[in-house]
Here is the input.
Amino acid sequence: MSVDTATVRRVARLARIAVSDEDVATMEGELNAILGFVEQLREVDVTGIAPMTSVIPMQMKKRQDAVTDGRKSDDIVANAPATEDHYFLVPKVVE
Here is the structure.
């Protein structure tokens, strides 16, 4: 696949990147080089190879999924100028 000048301008517009006329030719060459490398990667035979997330097999550390109130309600309302039953009191703004 080859990228032309119109495609570079369209990609730049979609990405909301300002590209000057001088930079379009440079970006065209860079994008064609990237796509050429991707084409090289497509030639590699990966049948039978499992996808991996790390070079070292390891288990993800998981914590117990428990719902709590955070035990911080007293600390949170301590900073409020006015509270009542662990709720913030605010002035009425709508009549």
